[in-house]
Amino acid sequence: MKSCFEYLDYRAFLRDWFEEAKAKRRGVSFRWFSARAGITSPVFPKLVMDGQRNLGDAGAEGFANAMGLKGKERSYWMHLVAFNQAKTSLAKQEQYSVLSGLALTIPEKSLGHTAFRYYAKWYHAVLRELATLRDFRNDWETLAQWVRPAISAQDAKEGMQTLEEMGLLIRNKKGLWEQTDKAITSGNDLARKSLLEFHRTMLANSAQALDNIPKAKRHVSALTLGVSQGSYDAILVEYEAFRNRVLRLVHQDADADRVVHMGFQLIPVAMEPSREGEGL
Question: What per-residue confidence (pLDDT) applies to 188?
Answer without folding.
Answer: 61
